[in-house]
Amino acid sequence: MTFEFSAHVAPRDVDVSFTVGPGETVALLGPNGAGKSTVLAVAAGLLRPDRADVVLDGRPLTVAGEGRRRVQVPPHDRQVALLAQQPLLFPHLTVRDNVEFAPRSRGASRAEAAAVARHWLDEVSAGELADRRPSQISGGQAQRVAIARALAADPRLLLLDEPMAALDVAVTPALRQTLRRVLADRSAVLVTHDALDALLLADTVVVIEDGRMAEQGPTAEVLSRPRSAFAAQIAGLNILTGTWRTGSLTVGDRAVHGMVDGARPTEGGAATAVFSPSAVSVYREPPSGSPRNLLPARITEIEPQGDRIRVRAGALSADVTPQAVAELDLTPGTEVTLSVKATEVTIYGT
Amino acid sequence: MKRRFTTIAVIALACGTAACGADTSDAGGGPSGSSTASGGSKITVYAAASLKSTFEHLGQSFEKAHDGTTVEFNFAGSSDLVSQIKGGAPADVFASADEKNMTKLTADKLHGSDPKVFATNTLEIATPPDNPAGVTSLKDLADKDITLVVCAPEVPCGAATGKVAKAAGITLSPDSEEQSVTDVLGKVKSGEADAGLVYVTDVIGAGDAVKGIEFPESTAVTNRYPIATVAVSRNAALGQQFVDLVLSDEGQKVLADAGFGRP
Amino acid sequence: MGSTVPRISRRPSHLDPPRVGVPRWIFLPALAGAAFVLLPLVGILSRVEWGNFAELITSDASRQALLLSLKTSSLSTLACIVLGVPMAVVLARTRFPGQGLLRSLVLLPLVLPPVVGGIALLYTFGRRGLLGHTLDVLGLQIAFSTAAVVMAQTFVALPFLVVSLEGALRTAGRQYEVVAASLGARPTTVFRRVTIPLVLPGLLSGAVLSFARSLGEFGATITFAGSLQGTTRTLPLEIYLQREVNADAAVALSLVLVVVAVLVIGLARQGRTSL
Predict the structure, then answer these.
(1) By the CB < 8 Å criterion, does B155 face chain C?
(2) Domain boundaries, chain C
(3) A82 in contact with C, Cβ within 8 Å
(4) C226 vs B176: CB contact, 8 Å cut-off?
(5) How far, CA to CA in Å, does A172 sit from each of A130, A140, A184, A205, A219?
(6) CATH of the domain at A291
(7) Which residue from A224, A274, B20, C24 puts its CA 20 to 30 A from C12's CA?
């Protein structure tokens, strides 16, 4: 499955092109109002663009532009399912009926639809909720059911519009894991403004700013070395990969402690630690007796970013105040120790 | 939403049960004429709706003859008017379309002068101008294929219709029994009905809009119009002068021109 | 939670959110308003002749009028649903030039005196009306028939259903319909399985309003349909006629009409609450 998207929506001044490869998840990252939702609306067939080539597996879904024969496949016939910020479970139907909705709509028998619903409810660990009404389950549970409902439609492409933005932070890690599992070999477009979501769920990131693509590339690359202003602001993430051993991430000869996101990584398996530059402190001498993670590094670059200074040390970076840079006399080449609290580090198995 | 629902429901009901906007009785509207008489005296005449044009005409003569005097009218169905007077409405003169309603007034000793019959009225067949059903006599109306509209037996013109039919020995099978002569006339004018039974005066008042067909049996029932001053009148003398005008030669001529018979 | 559709379930009062108090003086005009509406009902009650009440309301004419009213109001409510639901959906869910004007015109019977509605119907469906000849050719005689009563009632009651349902549709929003479509449901399936169930409370209240309005219809009926016992003389027409001869009967029947209307509205509220 390949999804080629290119569209220009004049009234909203949005002009974006990207491609989703087979089994690939593309994250659209950008500030509010950048045009991410417009892109989803065009992909879902809810918005008529002024110029467009939206093609799914060789089948034109939306074609528009001067001198071209207009194609606008209606939303129900695109095989593109939409998962919104709100679960939007049909309030008058039970959880089971919600998940059976898509198979029933395309004419499956009751038994078939029931089997599909059971499968997907189990897949999102919501099997026991089948007989409940949407008003009787929590927001996190509802979003799981919404995922099951979207997948039960057997879409060729899944569109996710900030699926975790409206949820309690306590339930996001578990839901993220569920999404990681179901998106693993599925073509999907994920709209988010959360770098961690992009990092954990997407293979490729497209950064959109003011209706235009600011940059795109493999997720880890874009997020760790952002070129666009927005990516730099929310991302510029420190990403360390290593092996999970005895409760911490081993990177080279060092152990990095952090909070595990989702299921615990397997012993000896690959794992990744992520933390924000703003969580990193810089020391000239290693502080003694600190419970923090300490990472020796050599400064490679110092760049001002608004009222803060981003200090880069190879793959790592830290955001510090201009006063700190002056007091510590930080210049490229300086040997420093970077320190980050374990509670600021997210570790997940890869 | 529930609150809004209730609000609209109340409006709907109020509209419904009170028949909002509906005004299909004999009523020709509320009091007419100038509403205030600065300095001069004023009398209020409650008169049956069928007297509207003639009494308005006479009212003007009266105002001319009595400088500074205003005559106000309230035209409606006679039974409505009696109810209003019984309820304390400030009437000086009451002119009824039948003696039954005048009796209601005298029974309660609410009349000033003794009622005098000043006009009579008889029934006539009204058809659309082209008379599509070819009606020529009262007997034709017994034909079930004719769309016939009459007054309901409960109202005076309907009672008269029943008596006429009985006198003629025929059975009418009307398609509608209307509330008032006006309603019957309306259905005939619009061509919905092939024929209707109304008063002679109504046919004349309708002009070219309907065709009138007289029938001999109509004399079986003559509607008599009595007039009297009202006991509560604050201007009994002036009211009596209006009654006198109606009974005078001038008044009788105006009534005769409109099709009313002499008492 | 996720659902933004208003839930109808009545919550216990101790769970109601704290609210800001209303100014105290407002109770005075509110009370006056309530009294203004309720006192006339007391007025009717005070004039009812209880001694022969049963006799008055069970006369042949009264029974026929009540039955005819219930029958025609039910039929016109059905007609309002059949015609009004599509109208509300088109008004709430589509956009086309002149839509605002069309909405205003469609709602016209709300503000029009019913007699005017009756006259309009007469000049459209009457024998000499716009469609009169066509209907005549088809062998349809509408004037003076029960069908004319239903038409008059539908004419005046339709806007109540359309307004009520259009409001419900707008409140419900399109988001559930978008999700349903993205799940592969065709427009008809979305309409049947999502749109209508979501606005069912609005549809129900609209239907009740239409029924109530039909039940009370007078002006358009007497103008367009005429008045004949058992065929076109509905309860309001009977009341108005009885007023001429038997004021006690008119009062008794008025009370019956009020009770029926209160029952309908009460039942509907009950139904909505349990939804």
Answers:
(1) yes
(2) 53-98+113-274
(3) yes
(4) yes
(5) 21, 8, 18, 20, 20
(6) 2.40.50.100
(7) C24
pLDDT, tens digit, 9 for 90 and up, residues C108-154? 898 889 989 998 998 899 888 888 888 878 888 888 899 999 999 99
d(CA A7, CA A114): 38
Cα separations in angstroms, B4 against C5, C163, C164, C166: 17, 11, 9, 13
Look up residue A195 and give its two tokens. 């770098």
Backbone angles phi, psi at C11, to 5 degrees: -90, 150
User: What percent of chain A clears pLDDT 70, i.e. is strictly above it?
Assistant: 97
pTM attached to this predicted model: 0.75
Contacts of C200 in chain A (CB under 8 A): 92
Q: Torsion angle of alpha carbons B3, B5, B9, B10, nearest 10°?
A: 20
Sign of CA dihedral A321, A325, A331, A333: negative
CA dist., res. A273 & res. A255, Å (int): 11
Which residue numbers in chain B have pLDDT < 70?
1-40
pLDDT over threshold 70, residue A148: yes
Cα angle B52, B54, B58 (rounded to 5 degrees) comes to: 115
Residue C88's pLDDT is 94
Residues B193, B199, B205, B207, CA torsion sign = positive
CATH number of residue A73's parent domain: 3.40.50.300
Residues of C in contact with A102 (CB under 8 A): 183-185
In whole numbers, what is the pLDDT of chain C averaged over residues?
87
Fold (topology level) of B25-120+224-257: D-Maltodextrin-Binding Protein; domain 2 (3.40.190)
Which CATH architecture describes the domain C53-98+113-274? Orthogonal Bundle (1.10)
How many Cβ pairs closer than 8 A exist between chain A and C? 90
A199 lies in which domain range? 3-230
If one counts the domains in chain A, the total is 2
Give mean pLDDT, residues C233-253. 88
Interface chains of chain C (3 or more CB pairs under 8 Å): A, B
Q: Which residue ranges make up each domain of chain B?
A: 25-120+224-257, 123-220
What chain C residue is nearest to A80 in terms of C-alpha separation?
C182
Choose which CATH entry (3.40.190.10, 3.40.50.300, 3.30.470.20, 1.10.10.60) describes domain B123-220. Answer: 3.40.190.10
By the 8 A CB rule, do C223 and C118 touch? yes
